[in-house]
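Private note to self, pasted from the team thread so I don't lose it. Backbone tokens:
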């Protein structure tokens, strides 16, 4: 690693300050502040309705905050307020520097076009135009996510749930994003399929040095993927710390309940 990039890693990639979102009188998210560093995986956990998805949408500029700010370090090293980005910069983040893995693959894939096109499309959006190179890169990525390259011309609507989710990951990672947002990435899958997907995600995230923010109500997902955990309740972050510390020795009574699985998902 060059001196410059190791220096860069001392600087936060994303900073949230006093983030809040109200829906009428409901505070879906209140006063959230933290910094995420390059290569760091943060899990946002909490029961259903605690504000996890709202926070993820605020952090990824899909929702405008009622109060507070999110700043992101662009590739030129400058930390920029997401609310002040121009359209071209926003597009760059959504198409290239960020990835989004949705719980429902139909939200992140085009179900009717081929797997190869699903991956190739992201490359074309960043200016690739050589058909052979696009197809080769798409094939390489299908292999990386353990999809038989013989299925490259099939549409994801013919794929199983686990394959769809792996294809969604390939489509996102092909542009070498620096940050990936995931909302319940294993939520809709059978337990055995979940384990394989988690293992794959864990390896890719570490090989690529990706930063990720993963929303999950499943503490096993947080345990396997994340370095750090934020526990949400009623729109607030009530506990945060290193994953093993928070899950093995939770301070807050609510987190203790969550860890002992007394609370419903
Ligand atoms: N678009 C919306 N309009 C009104 N209320 C919403 C909207 N989105 C979420 N909420 C409410 O905000 C709270 C937090 O929701 P959400 O962020 O989806 O929680 P989680 O992802 O933890 O299940 C819930 O009470 C939910 O009903
Ligand atoms: Mg949610």
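Design output:
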């Amino acid at each position: 690693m060059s001196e410059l990039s190791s220096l860069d890693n001392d600087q936060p990639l994303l900073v949230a300050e006093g983030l809040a979102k109200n829906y009428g009188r409901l505070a879906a998210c209140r006063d959230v502040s933290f910094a995420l560093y390059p290569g760091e995986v943060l899990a946002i956990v909490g029961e259903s309705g605690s504000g996890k998805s709202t926070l993820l949408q605020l952090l990824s500029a899909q929702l405008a905050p009622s109060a507070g700010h999110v700043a992101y370090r662009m590739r030129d090293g400058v930390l920029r307020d997401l609310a002040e980005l121009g359209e071209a910069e926003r597009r760059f983040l959504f198409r290239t520097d960020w990835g989004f893995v949705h719980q429902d693959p139909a939200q992140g894939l085009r179900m009717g076009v081929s797997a190869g096109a699903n991956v190739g499309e992201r490359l074309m959006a960043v200016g690739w135009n050589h058909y052979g190179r696009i197809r080769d890169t798409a094939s390489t990525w299908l292999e990386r996510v353990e999809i038989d390259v013989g299925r490259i011309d099939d549409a994801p609507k013919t794929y199983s749930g686990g394959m769809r989710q792996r294809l969604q990951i390939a489509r996102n990672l092909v542009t070498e994003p620096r940050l990936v947002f995931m909302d319940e990435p294993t939520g809709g899958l059978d337990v055995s399929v979940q384990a394989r997907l988690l293992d794959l995600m864990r390896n890719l995230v570490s090989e690529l040095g990706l930063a990720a923010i993963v929303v999950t109500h499943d503490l096993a997902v947080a345990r396997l993927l994340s370095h750090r955990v934020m526990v949400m309740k009623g729109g607030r972050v009530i506990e945060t710390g290193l994953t093993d510390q928070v899950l093995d020795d939770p301070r807050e009574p609510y987190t203790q309940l969550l860890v002992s699985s007394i609370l419903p998902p």
